[in-house]
Write a structure and sequence with these properties.
By secondary structure, this protein is mainly α. The protein contains 7 helices and 3 strands; from the N terminus they run αααβααββαα.
Length: 177
């Protein structure tokens, strides 16, 4: 059951308090961080409730979906860690649970004896397809913003991520001869 709306915006009240305490220089950053944190909570709640019946966390779903997107359902663990942009320990812990549940296998890397390859199992592939259908219908199809606002927000966040070093623009291709 949803709780009733608050009579005031708590972030606006926090802004007022920051100003009253003489922290005006930090107000824009505090408001941004607090707003994004609350938005993240609002966006993640339907994802978590949708994945709960599948016994998946979003991290476990992401690993399965990443593997299912590959041509043969396999990827070196290091590549998965880089693409998921999380600490290797987190990926290892997530993969441990997926292996325990029979959704992923660890395999020897064919050319690098130090590396491990992750492989999605048939059960993992079937589960991630069902979970993806549910997420698309119950969490991703309506995030509470119209398409234009969602696209604007994604562009702004992409600029923040790029400045933080998450990615680089692809190099320009030379003109054909």
């Amino acid at each position: 059951m949803a709780r009733p709306a608050m009579p005031i915006d708590p972030i606006a009240e926090a802004r007022r308090q920051w100003l009253a305490h003489g922290w005006a220089d930090a107000v824009p950053g505090m408001v941004l961080v607090t707003s994004v944190n609350r938005a993240q909570q609002l966006l993640v709640a339907p994802v978590e409730s949708t994945l709960r019946p599948f016994a998946l966390s979003f991290a476990r779903f992401e690993v399965l979906r990443l593997l299912a997107f590959t041509r043969d359902g396999r990827m070196p663990m290091g590549s998965a860690t880089a693409r998921l942009q999380v600490h290797p320990t987190s990926v290892t812990s997530t993969v441990d649970r997926l292996v325990r549940d029979g959704l992923v296998r660890r395999e020897k890397h064919p050319t690098d004896g130090r590396a491990t390859v992750l492989a999605i199992t048939d059960a993992g592939r079937e589960l991630v397809e069902r979970a993806t259908e549910a997420l698309n219908a119950q969490a991703f199809a309506d995030v509470g913003l119209d398409e234009a606002d969602a696209a604007d927000l994604v562009r702004i966040i992409a600029r923040l991520r790029k400045r933080a070093g998450d990615f680089e623009d692809p190099p320009e291709l030379p003109e054909p001869l």
